Amino acid sequence: MVREFISERSFKDKEYFICMNKCPLIRLSDSISYIQANISIDLANQVRKLIAGKERETGALLHLGQNKIKGIEKRRALRSLLLCQYVYYSAQWVKMTGRISTLSPVNYLSSDWKESSICYWTSQSELEIREGIRAYIVTSSDITDAARAASRWVQSDVKKYNFISAPRQKFSGMYNQICYVGVMVWLFNSGLVSLPWLLRFSNANRQISLTQAFGPGRATYYSAEAISSNSFLTVPRGYIVHIYKNVSCWNGHWMISLGNGMAVGVNNNDESPPVSRIYCNHLSIKKQLMDYQGGYMVVINPRLIPAVL
Predict the structure, then answer these.
(1) What string of DSSP letters covers 162-225?
(2) Which residues make beta-bridge pairs with 296?
(3) CA distances in angstroms from 86 to 59, 62, 132, 172, 280, listed in the order given
(4) CB atoms within 10 A of CB 263
(5) What was the pLDDT predicted at 161?
């Protein structure tokens, strides 16, 4: 009944606003229809699945109140974005948490999340709001986009993640972040992974959970003497590079390759001549591994990352 009502869309503007104001289920159905038609069928289906049994209360959250947002399609876009924000930041979407990175129903929403989101996105166009929704899906298949995003990164002094009022390309993550979280943020900036992926795995901190996030890679051991080889020059641009001294120090250091043996990273190892530990976009993979005086290197193709929407 609701779907038929929405699909016809033959009612006048006044009737539309009355329906949206009075019926949470119609608001919800219309928002999912907007995502399906303009963003991604898979995203629409996943949202529908995640809110099963909670449709009415979810639809109630999509009420825009008295905010003066011009245009029906822009209002539809904003409701659809609010829907995605609610579903994936809330406990509906399980995320890794705790010292052993277990998947748990964690809520990242602040008490004023909806007001903050409406305040920011109301001043954006419908197309810009659509881009905000597209953060919830993979938008690139070009591995070199990861290198571009990493090399152009500007550090932020924001003390917590602020996905609510920042488009994908402008999100910079946390100040002084962990190296593998930096890699995750750049993969998200590039469009190679989605925001649901980032939200789920950004608290991964052990071998099992980080392997779940990035996928397995083949480790190659380099003795202190073998590090002088030129094999680092062949690491493709945009690939994830993970180096570590031994199994007991598996977390090691994570970077994005720039090609020709160079990489981008945060919280870096020492090099000679010195490089910034906070952030550097001209690291030498060889010298980063030399800081361990020998160790392992794993190279991962970002397109083979599992569990990306």
Answers:
(1) --TT--GGG----TT--HHHHHHHHHHHHTSS-HHHHHHHTT--SHHHHHHHH---EEEEE-TT
(2) 221, 244
(3) 11, 9, 13, 21, 35
(4) 31
(5) 54
What are the extents of the domains in the chain?
Answer: 2-134, 140-309
Distances (CA, A) of 132 to 137, 144, 163, 170, 200: 10, 22, 9, 11, 18
Q: How far is CA 259 from the centre of its chain?
A: 24
Q: How confident is the model at residue 306 (pLDDT cuts 50, 70, 90)?
A: confident
Residue that the structure tokens 């570590």 belong to: 244
CA distances for 154 relative to 167, 186, 203, angstroms: 14, 11, 21
DSSP string, 134-168: HTTS-----THHHHHHHHT------SS---TT--G
Among 300, 309, 303, 307, which Cα is nearest to 180's? Answer: 300
Beta bridge partners of 96: 103
Q: What span, in angstroms and rounded, lies between the C-alpha atoms of 194 and 198?
A: 6
Reported confidence tier of residue 4, pLDDT bands at 50, 70, 90: very low
Give the pLDDT mean for 159-183. 77
Q: What is the pLDDT of residues 232-280, one digit of tens each?
A: 899 999 999 999 999 899 999 999 999 999 999 999 999 999 999 999 9
Q: Are 261 and 249 in contact (CB under 8 A)?
A: no
What is the pTM (predicted TM-score) of this model?
0.90
Reported as a pLDDT band with limits 50, 70 and 90, residue 170 is: confident
C-alpha dihedral sign at 157, 159, 164, 169 = positive
Give dist(CA 193, CA 201) in Å, integer. Answer: 11
Rounded CA gap, 118 and 67, in Å?
8
- C-alpha 292: how far from chain center: 30
By residue count, the chain amounts to 309
Contact 200, 95 (CB under 8 A): yes
State yes or no: cis peptide before 273, omega within 30 of 0.
Answer: yes
DSSP state of 308: -
